[in-house]
Specification:
By secondary structure, this protein is α+β, with helices and mostly antiparallel strands. Helices cover about 60% and strands about 15% of the residues. Strand 3 (about 145-150) and strand 4 form a beta hairpin. Bound molecules: adenosine-5'-diphosphate (ADP). Adenosine-5'-diphosphate binds near residues 391, 437 and 450.
Length: about 475
Amino acid sequence: MLILYSSLSVKSQVNKIRGLSRKIDLFSLRLRLTIGIGVVSALGNGSIAIWMSWKMQQILINSQKNHVEQIAARLPDDVKLYSEMIPLETGLQKAINNLTNTNSFLWVQKPNRQILAQSTKWHSLSDSTVAELMSKSEMPIKPEVYKIGQRYFVLYGGSLQVEGKVLGKLFIVQDMTHEQTMFLAMVQTLWIASILVIIVITLVIAYYVKFSLQPLRQLNQMTEVISAKDIAQAQLHLDHAPSEVKELAQTFNMLLSRLSQSWEQERQFVSNVSHELRTPLTIVHGYLQSVLRRQNNLTETQKEALETAASEAEHTISLLKNLLDLARADSGYLHFQIESCVLNDLVAEVVGMAKNYSERTIQVEVQASCIRAKVDYNRLKQVLLNLIDNAIKYSEPNTPIILKLNQQQNQATIQVCDRGYGIPLQHQSRIFERFYRVDEARNHTTGGSGLGLSIVKTLVEGMGGSVTVHSKLGEGSVFTVTLPI
Ligand code: ADP
């Protein structure tokens, strides 16, 4: 039980860390700027703290050394003064005691190591420390700092001359443990303060960077929602943004306007070409049909050639019509006559029309006898004929097509179901795109141009509805048109 609990808590921790790392974008400008500035400030602060520690240590050591040097320089003068009044050895002892303080210890030693005089005044050094120091045979001529055990000392050993006569060797020991401990405590405080300052600076920088990048985020959000429909009116305005971001927004605006212009020109071109080609092709198709109907003396080959020409012309006319419809929809010139219609009648009419050109079994399943919706009657007919046409094209001739009419709350749905080849999952989201076809090899035999479903989507959305597909490979497809009631 305990093991289960701990493994669960580890899992939840791992999930938390994963969630956090997903939240933190490692490549974001915000993180990079924050880390960059944070590192620079840490280096700056760290360098100042190191320099200050070093400088303070130097000041402390130099002051201690100076003090020792002053004692060493003063002692001969003091001894000389005292020796004018009292015997030399007593004068030496008096002078040593005068210069001894709580942290220092002095002694004068003859070359044969006999002690001439030593501090007898109270000092803080323990007897064992004094004994250990006095047993040292060598001491530096210039004052130096030594660490002995846990204590720090400035040691000095030089000859003592009074009026040109060498009395012996003078040794000075200055205990600086207290000062050094205070100094180390101060350095520690300085480092803690520096780390706190770095943390605070980094947090402030993180907030400031976030705040500074806010206009860029706004720009991104504004650009994200611009759709193909409103690209012509789209303008990016950022009132309180920095000049650089404002310039970027202006450049975006110019880009959008150029895009919209070239898009408009393209639409216009497609619309004009479709319109100009459709009329002569319709005439050609008409002539071909009438020749096929009236001329009985055509050979089989001639008849076949004319039929192929007529079928191709019909296909091209339908393609041009679809292109024209899409171009009009893009420019907002595709008008709908929305009115409340009985969908049962519409479905029945469409099934009748479909049966005229196909011998396929088309079944109709309706939920209620009168289902109404607000639609453009003719456009919806076009939609359903397109879907039925596809269902026929992409299924075997012996399988039925089923139309289901339902009503749910404030929506009516028409489903066109087939038991055909189905659409692979990865293509399902793209089949409503213009000229998108799933399998060119198979589609070639079925004709079509890849515009049918994009027309369906445009028309259904133009009527305030939506169209979706649900399909399984090898089992069939269901296209659902949802319309407002
Ligand atoms: P097309 O003119 O090629 O039929 P559509 O836009 O109507 O163009 O359809 C796009 C593609 O979607 C088709 O090429 C076809 O592969 C696939 N498709 C459409 N309807 C069906 C369906 N009922 N069953 C299987 N595939 C379909």
